[in-house]
Amino acid sequence: MNTTQLTVLAIKYMREAKKESLQTVLEELHPYDLAELYRALPEKHHFRFLTYLTSKQIADLLMELEQEIQMEVLHKLGIEKSSKVMDIMDNDDLADMLSEISEEKLEEYLSAMHKDESKSVQQLMSYPPETAGGIMTNEFVWIRDYYSVREAVDKFKTFAGLTRNIYYLYVIDENKKLVGVVSYRDLLLADLNEKIEDIMFSRVLSVPIEMDQEEVAQLIQRYDFLAVPVVDEKNVLKGIVTVDDVIDVFIEEANEDIEKLSASGKSIDFSTKATTASFRRLPWLILLLFIGLITGSILDGFEQTLSQVVALIFFMPMIAGMTGNTGTQSLAVVVRGLVTNTLEKRTILKLVWREFKVGTMIGITCGLLVFTVASIWQGDLVFGMIVGISLLITLIIGTMAGTIIPLILYRIGIDPAVASGPLITTLNDIFSLLIYFGIATTFLHLLI
Amino acid sequence: MNTTQLTVLAIKYMREAKKESLQTVLEELHPYDLAELYRALPEKHHFRFLTYLTSKQIADLLMELEQEIQMEVLHKLGIEKSSKVMDIMDNDDLADMLSEISEEKLEEYLSAMHKDESKSVQQLMSYPPETAGGIMTNEFVWIRDYYSVREAVDKFKTFAGLTRNIYYLYVIDENKKLVGVVSYRDLLLADLNEKIEDIMFSRVLSVPIEMDQEEVAQLIQRYDFLAVPVVDEKNVLKGIVTVDDVIDVFIEEANEDIEKLSASGKSIDFSTKATTASFRRLPWLILLLFIGLITGSILDGFEQTLSQVVALIFFMPMIAGMTGNTGTQSLAVVVRGLVTNTLEKRTILKLVWREFKVGTMIGITCGLLVFTVASIWQGDLVFGMIVGISLLITLIIGTMAGTIIPLILYRIGIDPAVASGPLITTLNDIFSLLIYFGIATTFLHLLI
Predict the structure, then answer these.
(1) Residue B83 class from Cβ within 10 Å (0-12 exposed, 13-18 middle, 19+ buried)?
(2) What pLDDT is recorded for position A415?
(3) Same fold for the domain at A142-251 and the one at A274-447?
(4) How many angstroms away from the CA of B175 is the closest CA of chain A?
(5) Measuring CA to CA, how many Å separate A191 from each of A9, A167, B169, B334?
(6) Contact residues on chain A for B370, CB-CB shorter than 8 A
(7) Between A258, A263, A314, which is nearest B258 by CB?
(8) How far apart are CA B338 and CA B333, in angstroms?
(9) Which of A84, A136, A319, B53 gives A239 a disulfide partner, CB atoms 3.0 to 4.6 angstroms apart?
C-alpha cells in the first residue's frame, strides 16, 4: 500500500469513526511510514488523526518529523499530552526538538514531564548541537566488570526498554569510568557463568564529549562500529552515539558541502518557503553581483583595446567560463577529499603538485584546440595565439585557485564555505579577463 | 601513537628483524589503522612488512585498501598465499576486489581457493555492482522457525566466525524462503526454551536482489535498520546488506552528486594520478569549450550594437555570472532533494512554483540594485533600465533552467549527470547574453 492509498483509507476510517480499523492499519507501519502518512493528510484531519494514535505512536511520529511540523503537533496536543509523549521519546531526538521551543514554553513542558526524564534531557540540551554531546543519547545500560554474564543479561532484560538503538553494553568501574565494552554478540557467545571482565574488550575506543560530529562520524565509518561511547575529560561515560545518527551526519555534511559549492544558502529543501529560500540565497547573490560589477569595470580599462578588435569579445565568455569550470572541478576534488582524508603536509604538497600538472595538461590540450579554431575563424594566426596562450595560462591559474584557496582556508581554520563554487568562479572571471585582455593589449600592434 | 610514529617504529622493528615486537604493536591496530600504516610505509618495505603479517591481518588489510594498492599486495603475495588470504576475506569485499582482476588471473586465484568460498564469491560477482546483490554479503547464519532459542544460539555459536557484521539471524522455511527475523537482542531477552516462531518478527522487510544500491541505502536510513535481507523473485534469502556498507553508499552517492554539480569527472580523489585525472576531466571541459565558443559566436551577431555602446560589455560578466549562480543554486537544491525525497507530481509542481517565486523575488531585488548602480555609473536611466530588466528576466530564466532541466532528465530516466553544474551555467550564459543584447538592441535608439 503506497502513501496515497494509505491516506485515502485513513480518511475513510476517520470519517466513519472506526478507531480500531485504523489502529490495525497503523500497527503495521514503521515510524517513517507513519510520518509520511501524517505529512500527506490534509491539515484539517491532523487533529482527529492524533487523537486516534497511542502515546507511543505519537512519540514515534514526532521523532521522524521535521521541526516545523513537530511544533504543529505539540500545539495540537497541548502541554499535558505533549509531556506524556515526551517521556517516551528518545532523549536525543527530544533534545533536538526542544532546542527550537521558546524559553517559557520549554519550562512548561519540562515541568510537566517526569523528573528524571526532564533532568536527563536538559543535560543533553546543554551540549553544542554539532558535537558528540549534541548527537549522543544518554539512555544506555551500563554494567560492572565484576558482574557475571548472567547478571549482565538480567540487568539488560530489566532496562531493555531504554536501549532501542544500542548494540553494546558498556562496562564502568566504581568511579563511573569507562573500562570496557561487551557486544550483544559476545553475551550470546559466552557462558552464563563467565565474568564480564574476562569477556569484555578493554581497549575500547571512546570520543570526547566536545568532538565535532563529523569526526565522530568518520571514526564510526572507518572502524565499522555500530556505536561509540562518549566520555568527559575524566573518562566518565556520558552517552552513546549510534550508527543511525551517523548516517544522518554524513547526509547533513554532504548537503553542507554542496551548499558551499553552489553557494545555495543554508538548508533549503523541497519544503522551504519561497521567501525563506530567497532570503537565504540573496546575501551570496548580492555579494557575487558586486564582484561581477567589479569584473566588468576591469573591462572599462581595456575599452580602447576592445573597440579596436571587437572580435576579442567573442572569446571572452569561453575563456571566463572555462577558467570557472576548471576551478570548480578542482574545488570539488578538494572539498570531497576532506571528508575522508586527514590533511598532512605531505598530502597537501602532493595534491597541489598533482593539480598543477592537471592544469597544465588540460591547458595545453584546450589551448591548442582553441588556437586552431580561433585562427581559422578569424583567419589570423596571431589572434589564435593570443586566445590559445591566454586560455593555457588562465586554465593553470584557475586550477590552482580552485585547489589552493580552499586548502589555505581549511588550514587556517576558516570554514571553506567562504571558498564556495560561485565565489571561486567569480574570482576566476577576474583573473581570466585580466590575463586575456592584458595579453591582447600587449600584442595589439600585431593584430591591427 | 600517530601514523608517522607507527611507521618509524615498524621500520625499526623490521630492520632489527624483531617480528614479535612488531606483532605486539600490530595486534593493537584496527584494520583501518593497519591500512593507514601500509600506505605510509615506503614501497621498499612493503614486501617484508607483508611477510610479518598473519593471513588474517593481510585479509583485514586488503579489505581496507583501494583497488590499486590491493593489486600491488596480491602481486607481492603470489597466487598461493593470496588465495589463502582470500578464503578469509569477507565475500562482499572479495568480490569487489576480484572484479578488477583480468580474466585469466581470476581463474588462477579462484581455483587455488577453497571450493565453497570460490563458488560463493563467484555468485556474488555475477550481480551488477551498484545493486543490492552487488553490495550484499552471502555469508550469514539462517535458522528455522521450529528451532528453540537454545538451538538457534547453538547454531549461532557454531557459525559465529562467519557473521562479523550481521546483527540479526534470519528465519527461513523448508523452501529457503524468508519468513522472519530475530535480533541478537531478541535472543538475549528470550527464554532459552521459547520457540523461534514465537519470538521472531514476521513482517520482515526485504529488498529484491536487483534493487539500486541508493534505494537500499535510503530504506536502511529511513527505518534505522542495521541490516536488510536480500531476496530473489521467489522470496528466497540470498544475502544481507549491512549498515556499514550503506554508509559507504551514502558517501559514494554524495561524491557522485558533487561530481555532477562540478562536472569534475568520475572518482577523482587525492591519490588519483595527474594523467588519469586529466583524462577524466577533459571530455567535459572540451564539450564546455565548444559551447563557450558558440556563446561567443552569438555576440558576433550583435557586433553592431556592441561597437555602438561599448559600455554594454561592462555588464556582460555580471549578467552571465549571476544567471549561472542562480541556476547552480536551484540545481543544488534539486539534486540533494532527490536523495531523500520521492518525486511525485504534487512535489514537482510545488517545487517548480516555489522556485519561480524565488527567481522572481531574487530577480526584482538584484534588478533594482543593478538599475541603481548602472544608472549612476553610466549617468543614463535608460541604460540602467536595460541592464536591470535584463537581469530580472535572466535570473527568472536561470532559476527555472536550474530547476526544470534536472527534473525532466530525472523523470524520463536519464541520469541528471548530464545536467551538471557547468553545463547549466554554460547554457545560462547563452540565454542571458541573448536576452541582454536582445533587449539592448531593441532599445538601442534610445541610448544613442
Answers:
(1) buried
(2) 62
(3) no
(4) 26
(5) 50, 19, 20, 54
(6) 289, 293
(7) A258
(8) 9
(9) A136
Q: Is residue B399 over pLDDT 60?
A: yes
Distance between CA atoms of A159 and A154, rounded to whole angstroms? 9
Q: Residue B111 CB: number of other CB atoms within 10 A?
A: 11
Domain A274-447 sits in CATH at 1.10.357.20
Task: Spell out the domain ranges in chain A.
Answer: 3-128, 142-251, 274-447
> How many CB atoms sit inside 10 A of residue A188's CB?
19
Of B303, B314, B336, the CB nearest to A258: B336
Q: Which chain B residues touch A369 with a CB distance below 8 Å?
A: 286, 289
Contact state of A264 with B332 under an 8 Å Cβ cutoff? yes
> Does B406 have pLDDT greater than 90?
no
From A165, A289, A425, residue closest to B318, measured CB to CB: A289
pLDDT category of residue A165 using cuts at 50, 70 and 90: low
Q: Chain B contacts of A365, Cβ < 8 Å?
A: 278, 282, 286
Crossing angle of the two packed helices A243-262 and B243-262, in degrees rounded to 10 = 0
| CATH architecture observed for domain B3-131 | Alpha Horseshoe (1.25)
Does domain A3-128 match CATH 1.25.60.10?
A: yes
pLDDT tens figures, B235-287? 999 999 988 888 888 888 777 777 777 666 666 667 677 787 788 778 878 88
CB contact under 8 A, A184 and B189: no
In this structure, which amino acid lies at residue A269? D
d(CA A427, CA A330): 14
Which CA distances in Å does A64 have to A7, A61, A386, B133? 18, 5, 59, 29
Choose the closest CB to B317 out of A268, A320, A325. A320
Cα B71 from Cα B58, distance rounded (Å): 13
Rounded to whole angstroms, the Cα distance separating A30 from B201 reads 13
CB B53 within 8 A of CB B84: no
Cα–Cα distance for residue pair A374/A439, rounded to 1 Å? 15
CA A424 to chain centre: 22
DSSP string, A108-168: HHHHHS-HHHHHHHHHHHTS-TTBHHHH-B----EEETT-BHHHHHHHHHHHGGG-TT--E
Assign A349 a pLDDT band (cuts: 50, 70, 90): confident
The CATH class given to the A142-251 domain equals: alpha beta
What is the number of residues in chain B? 448
Q: Judge contact between B327 and B426, C-beta under 8 A.
A: no
A 94-153: CB under 8 A from B: 153
Whose cell is 538599475? That residue is B371
Decide if B255 touches A, using CB distance below 8 A. yes
**Residue A310 contacts B, CB cutoff 8 Å:** yes
ipTM of this predicted structure? 0.74
Cα angle for residues B8, B10, B13 (degrees, 5° grid): 110
